[in-house]
Write a structure and sequence with these properties.
122 residues, mainly alpha, globular
């Protein structure tokens, strides 16, 4: 149990830092770590990552709200959250209907496309 606890804490630290620094929610760190290190299925890794992202996102948001920087654009949050909430509800149904192999391929392609775009852009 000690190794599992340490692994989960380490994944959480890396994901939380990446999420706070890059706004990625940490899922790009957690999903592969949960699958490759903890041996979770892709579906379980995605669902678990989403639950962790809620908690880590609230923590970072609370810190950003209490800072003097006023970095959050609440109008954009409201509009974007509306679309995201609806899409996430139906997306989680779609995720459960896909096989773990299909989901892994979708995740991998998304990571490659987004990564390549970020490297190419200024």
């Amino acid at each position: 149990m000690g190794k599992l606890l340490l692994t989960c804490l380490l994944v959480g630290v890396v994901a939380g830092l990446a999420g706070a620094l890059c706004g990625v929610g940490g899922g790009i760190i957690m999903v592969p770590a949960f699958v490759l290190i903890l041996g979770m299925t892709q579906k379980t890794a995605v669902a678990t990552s989403l639950a962790v992202v809620v908690v880590s996102g609230l923590s970072a948001t609370a810190n950003n709200v209490t800072s003097k920087s006023n970095l959050i654009d609440w109008k954009i949050v409201g509009i974007t959250a509306l679309g995201a909430v609806v899409a996430a509800w139906y997306g989680s149904d779609l995720m459960r209907s896909l096989s773990n192999q299909q989901l892994t391929k979708i995740f991998g392609v998304l990571m490659i496309v987004v990564g390549a775009r970020m490297l190419i852009m200024k």
